[in-house]
């Protein structure tokens, strides 16, 4: 692929010509967003690109690019997505093809726009697919029995709350909830003292499936539109008291942050790697002809007030035991239908080594070993004024793409 | 209130002048539905009523009544809902006010229309709010510890699957899923052998709340648009294997049936009764100035193939320990936002007495004591060809309203 000549792409930008992620943007202060694509420090206005004829002959309705969510675009199918991607790459590489005059308002500087929630989320499902995470958390909640007998037979998951999924940058209110403290015999309503992040990878569904018809594991990738970073904020003290027997509810329903730019499956493809075979072998409906996982370097930084802070987690998406395809196949095995815009998150991604834990519950051993920051500041769990910033990068053979940031500031 | 003179209302009809429930209907064979109101054996076409000037001066956009879901109407607020109700009652009682000529196409016979899913469900939350149910199920799963310590402190709930909520009459496919049978050491993928119904009451939210702002328990009723019957189909063998530690997932995500007519909170109000005070007293955020629950007689019939069948469950909504207001207050206590169209179901409603159990798991003691039907037919769990039919009725002082049916046929 040749160089981009229409815009300058800074070396450190996650938004290269290989990437071209989709988001919903508006001019600053305007609430009605519309679809755009990130390139370097700019956003391509897709409604404008449509007007300029960039997508001529692809059969895309104008309304797709003035919608306040990406869902209509996501539903167009892989063939159209690939064609749009090619047109955009051509546009960026060959100014002569689309002369400046016709397209001068198509590129907006990122500092003149704001980003919105990119997708009208249908259902939000949260898996529990990283083994080092499941083992460490299991030890804290059930020391004698960390990995339950079903964990290696099926990708454990629960339904999450879709209404409170927010775009990166939205402040997160410290929740009050029912907590049973060690000192009390009855629970109290208290602001959580154990506010945590969870580093996850989110898959956004771009193709609907029919109720009653399971998606075969080897077709599951066809249903993926793209990926985002996910912070599934959790209140551990509330979770501990409420989670039996039906799972977490108010401890996680107050907010989930996703990154604003959806990195498409087309952009992710060159970064797929083969994870190890599973032992025990999964049941046939979960057995893949070709196992693959995106290889994404993930990190979490905590920025304290006054700019102090540090990276607390460095890990990789390849620590997932269950692939996205397996998650989709299991999700639909009983006939549950997928809709365009559904979010399937991986669950916390942790590596086995120290510093690769994807949440504070693991990093601080449930608050008993606080993390040290500069000037003697310590953190067992998040405090008001802390900002959690997640990033993700893929790199291979000199090709590099990134997710940008999924960040959220804790407010009291 | 005077008699209805415009249409004849059969004595056995659930859809009296007091009721006026909302649904989405179309002419038979057409897929695009629009809002209507049930009265006797007829449906009032609201788009037509708007055209005829029935709602003049109420400030309702025409598009509200041509939408394929009720959500836009639900969002209009209680004042408008009450005004529309009054206009409809006037229309039905006083033909002279709206002459036949202007309104002759407004009433469609029910046998000429079909019903669709009435609401675009946002999130679907399922509570676990009936004590006799929680105790009986708890005994089966945890004989020594039926009611967990948190149960009387908070309305336990989990997030359900919204995509697979279907309208009454939609066939339900027997799901295949992972089951660990007593004879095996490893799970297998099998058609469920323990397909169950769950009799529940569903609350549809008509007013959005803001993220980060809990709904006070004494304002919670303002957020209720209306109620429906809910059958939360469950595969008990799949549930048993998968549910630890995060709760039910594929065992319930394949289908949930709701009744087609949404009975409004205005219609329910005369049937509210005061449930007993709770012991122990709930925390202040769950303490109601005035506790109230709708008093609804509920029943479940199983119709076997060839028309045989019987009522297997008769119970009442007053067996709920946690009121709908408490469910809403707890749901939002950590700051989770509600959206118009969210469905909050009660969980299985069971009474303490024999025959008042709201699911087969309880009725048949997990299949060990099958129910007897005529001609020697027995049922431990549902078989292909069985149809489950739920009904609900409110009656007080000669005033009577009903929910109609929530039914679903099991297909292989």
What is the structure about, briefly put?
In chain A, 16% of the residues lie in helices and 28% in strands. With 412 residues, chain A is α+β, with helices and mostly antiparallel strands. The model of chain A has no long low-confidence stretch (mean pLDDT 95).
Main sheet characteristics of chain A: 8 strands, mixed
Specify the structural class of chain A: alpha+beta
Q: Which word captures the global form of chain A?
A: globular
Oligomer: homodimer
Indicate the radius of gyration of chain A in whole angstroms: 21 Å
**Averaged pLDDT of chain A, please?**
95
Largest interface (CB < 8 Å): A-B, 64 and 63 residues
> Which strand-content bin applies to the residues of chain A?
25-35%
Percent helix of chain A: 10-25%
Segments of chain A where pLDDT lies below 50 for 5+ residues? none
Number of distinct beta strands of chain A: 26
**N-end to C-end Cα span of chain A:** 49 Å
Total DSSP helices of chain A: 9
């Amino acid at each position: 692929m040749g160089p981009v000549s229409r815009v300058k792409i800074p070396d450190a930008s996650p938004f290269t010509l290989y990437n071209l992620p989709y988001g919903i943007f508006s001019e600053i202060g305007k609430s009605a967003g519309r679809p755009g694509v990130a390139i370097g420090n700019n956003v391509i206005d897709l409604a404008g690109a449509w007007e300029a004829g960039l997508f001529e002959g692809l059969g895309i309705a104008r309304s797709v690019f003035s919608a306040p969510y990406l869902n209509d675009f996501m539903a167009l199918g892989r063939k159209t997505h690939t064609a749009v991607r090619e047109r955009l790459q051509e546009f960026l590489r060959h100014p002569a093809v689309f002369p400046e005059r016709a397209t001068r308002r198509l590129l907006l500087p990122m500092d003149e726009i704001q980003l919105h929630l990119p997708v009208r989320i249908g259902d939000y499902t949260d898996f529990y697919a990283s083994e080092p995470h499941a083992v460490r958390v299991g030890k804290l909640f059930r020391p004698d029995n960390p990995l339950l007998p079903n964990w290696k037979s099926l990708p454990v998951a629960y339904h999450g709350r879709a209404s409170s999924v927010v775009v990166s940058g939205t402040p997160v209110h410290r929740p009050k909830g029912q907590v049973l403290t060690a000192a009390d015999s009855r629970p109290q309503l208290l602001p959580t003292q154990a506010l945590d992040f969870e580093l996850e990878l989110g898959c956004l569904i771009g193709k609907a499936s029919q109720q009653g018809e399971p998606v075969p594991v080897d077709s599951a990738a066809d249903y993926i539109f793209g990926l985002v970073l996910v912070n599934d904020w959790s209140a551990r003290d509330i979770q501990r008291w409420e989670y039996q027997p039906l799972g977490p509810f108010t401890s996680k329903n107050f907010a989930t942050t996703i990154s604003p730019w959806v990195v498409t499956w087309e952009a992710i493809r060159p970064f797929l790697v083969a994870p190890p075979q599973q032992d025990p072998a999964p049941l046939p409906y979960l057995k893949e002809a070709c196992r693959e996982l995106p290889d994404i370097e993930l990190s979490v930084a905590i920025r304290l007030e006054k700019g102090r802070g540090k990276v607390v987690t460095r890990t990789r998406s390849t620590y997932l035991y269950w692939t996205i395809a397996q998650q989709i196949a299991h999700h639909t095995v009983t006939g549950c239908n997928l809709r365009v815009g559904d979010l399937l998150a991986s669950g916390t991604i942790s590596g086995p080594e120290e510093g690769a834990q994807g949440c504070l519950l693991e990093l601080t051993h449930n608050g008993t070993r606080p993390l040290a920051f500069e000037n003697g500041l310590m953190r067992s769990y998040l405090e008001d004024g802390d900002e959690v910033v997640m990033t993700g990068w893929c790199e291979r053979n000199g090709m590099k793409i990134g997710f940008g940031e999924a960040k959220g500031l804790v407010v009291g």
